[in-house]
Every structure is written in structure tokens, then in C-alpha cells.
Please model this.
Amino acid sequence: MPDLNAGDTAWVLVSSALVLFMTPGLALFYGGMVRAKNVLAMLMQNFFAMGIVTVLWVLVGYSLAFGDLGDGGFIGNFDFAGLEDLANTTTGSIPTLAFVAFQLTFAIITPALITGAIADRMRWPAWVGFITLWSLLVYLPVAHWVFAGGWLAERGALDFAGGTVVHVNAGAAALALVFILGKRRGWPKEPMPPHSLPLTLLGTGILWFGWFGFNAGSALAANGVAAQAFLNTFVAAAAGMLGWLIVERLKAGHATTLGAASGAVAGLVAITPCAGFVGGLSPIVIGGLAGMICFLAISLKFKFGYDDSLDVVAVHLVGGILGSVLLGLFADASVNELGKDGAFYGGGWGLFGEQALAVGAVMAFSLVVSAVIALVLKVVLPGGIRVSEDDENTGLDVSEHSENGYALERV
Amino acid sequence: MKLIVAIIKPFRVDEVKEALQSFGVKGLTVSDVRGFGRQLGHTEVYRGTEYKVDFVPKTQVEVLTDDDDAPRVAEAIIEAARTGKIGDGKVWIMPVDEVYRVRTGERGTDAM
Model:
């Protein structure tokens, strides 16, 4: 194998494990926020992503995302289907199979992010169908556009670790789905408070921990850019938490644990596209703004009357847009020779324009294709995509999985 | 025979239990319950959205006594449960037709 670097390889392998751990972390983050009767359904939708996406990735996923690398195109090819001919080859300074595993963990968590929006009401078969089709028809093309030298990357848009591919993509899909699926019965009149905020906080800690792999691993090397991305990730999460808590205390009267958790995640989302391209105090500004603006974005669902149950739109779509667009201002080429200068660093407004275009393109594509997938499933699946009124009242743990998350009562 | 039912603040349950034991009560039943009285509920805030929680958690204590002891048992509960703040709860006394001990079949005050 030519030019293989042991340190780089070790870091990317470790990062892959870190990012995989984010999906159970996300499951707990969301699982704590739903009502007790739906906790297993939420955990299951997330865990299942680790099953279905992994198998799809080996069969065709990696090849459709990363085939025809650097072609400036729309989607890859079938050259590497079944991971054909990849043993003992390198990508950069690491084994290609390490890159395959690392990218797989991104493909897993992206559709898992959507589950927070559709909590408590989507039928299990509908989720199986949706995540399968969405991974193939939405995630793989968008990953190719941005991560594999596709048309957006060729135009010059930057995305260090997935602000567009992961967060804008999943957030737009969530927005499309909640309109087609409809509101939870009783929302917003009936209170539906989180059943276990301790689970949510534990999940937040796991997400924060895993995000070091997500962002610093995206350097694909154990070098200075990885260290910069690592620190930026750390700082943006902290600033996001503070930003959210300040606005929450002023607007709603209390600094809450859910607010601390949500703010940290908002900061992490926004720094994702920027992680290896900005330096100095920029992560404090980006993370802090994300915490404040994502908190304010929660009110959108009440204004427009859509039930984005756990605020995937406010945190991931809004946070992803914010981070991707702010990169056009804060990018600093002295941090990373593969980066560029943004408007605040003498690079002019060109990058800002490309970032805005990338956000708009990914958002529009994901909104439209996600809506089409959901509408097709609604017609094709014998039971539709939404559970019956009885099942919704009973809870999805029993209706969809015949299990009970907390078998505490003995009577 | 009487059944005394008390709805009290959950954190006073140990004081009430000790007061009843020192009175000589041989057994009691407690359950977690929810409800509201003059105290009404409280509000909780999730992601900036306020929810009114109408039913607050309380503990229900049930004790069987003979007719003579009933008023003094009720007083013992009231004294032990009182904090002087709103939401201390209620105590009431109900008539009981018959009591059986399951193991022996004893009836009436012998079964208490």
C-alpha cells in the first residue's frame, strides 16, 4: 500500500467507532424526550439505522456515494458495489476500507436524525421503507455532491464534516415528513413533556463525545487540522449551551436542563461544516449564535402549525444552514491549506454565495425527494404510514414492537 | 370500625408513619396518588413552552381503627403531616362494615 500513514489510519478507525456511538447517543437524546409509552419505538428507529444502512452501504451505498470520485457529477457508480476491489487500496494516507467504515457511520446517523421529528406516530413498516429509500435516493447523491467531489464541491462549496450533507439534509427531510405525517393527536394543546431528561442529558454527553470523531476525524489524518477541528467542536458546543441558556432564561424565565442539552447540540451542528476551516474565536461566535437562533427557531412550529416533535428543524435544519452560511464569513485559509478565506478574512463574498447555493440545493432536493418517498409509501403500504388512533393512544412500544420500556408495575 | 384516609405531602409520610406507630397502630397502607385542591397545580417549561401540570403528586395513607381511636388517630396524622403551607392535604374518616384477616378468618377488631 503506497503512502499509508499509521497515525492517520489509527485516528480514522477510532473516529469511526466514536461516530457510530453517536447513534445510540442520539437514540437516548430523543428517547428521553418522548413520552414513556413511545421510548422503545424511538430507540428502535435509531438502532435500526445501524442495521439497515450498514448492509445497504456495503451492497451499493459506498459505491454510489464515492464511485466516480471528483467527477463534478450527481451520483457515483456501481464499480465498488459489494466493496469490490477495495482490499489493500488507499484513500489519501489511510486504507480505503477505513474510509468506507468512517463514511458509513455518517450515512447511519443522518437518517437517524429525522426520527425526532416523526416521534410517536409513524408505523414501523413505514420507517423501514422510508429509511431504506431515503438512504438510497437522498443521502447517497447528496454525499456524492459534497463529499466525493461532486458538482457542489467542484463549484467550491466547503463542508468539513457534513453541515449540508448531514444536518441540512436530515432537517429538510424532517420538515417534509411532518407535513405529510400530520400532528400527534392532541398537539399542541395537550402537554407531552419529556419522560426522562436524565436519558436526554446522557445522550447529549455521548453525542458531544462522539462528535470529536465526527469533526476531527473528518480531517482523515492525525494532524494540526484534526486538532483544530477537535478544539472548535469542543468550544462551539460550550458556546452553544451558553447562548441557548441566556436566551431561554430571558425569554422563558428558567435555564433548563433540556435547554443546556439542546444548546450544546445546536453548537455542535453549526460547527460541523466549519470545524476544520475556522480558528481563533470563530467557534465561540458560531456556536453561541447557533444556541440563540436555534432556541428562537423553536417558535416556528407553533407559528406555522407543524408538529416537529423534538425540534429537528429548529436544531438541525436551522443550525446546519447557519453553520454552512457562516462558514462563508469565518473561513480562514491559514487554518487549513485545503480551505478558503471567507468574507471576514479578505476572501470576498464568493464563498458565501457558494455556501448559500449549496444549502439551497441540498434543502430543495431533500425536501422534494423526501416528500415523494413519504407520499409513495402512504399509498403503497397497506396500513399507510401513520398508526391508528388506538395505537397512538396505547403507545408505539406495545403497538409496533409488543414491548414495554419500563415494566415496573407488578400488578 | 373506621377507615381513616389521609392525603398528605409525600415528604411527610415518614413522620406520619412514626406518629401512627407510637400511637400503637399495627398496620397501614400508603399509595402514590395525584390530584389537586386549593394548592392547584404548577407549570413546567420545555424548550420555552409552558405546560400547566394540574395534578400534583401526593401520598394517600389508609388506616383501620376501632370507633374510639379514630378521632385521635386522625389528629395524630394531622399533627405529623402539617407544615402550615398550602397543599398539606386532607384527612377523612369513613365507617367500615366488616374487616377480615385473610390468614385466620378473624373478624372485626380482632382482625386489625
User: Anything to note?
Assistant: Residues 6-400 of chain A form a domain with the Ammonium transporter fold fold (CATH 1.10.3430.10). Chain A is about 65% helix and 0% strand. The mean pLDDT of chain A is 96.
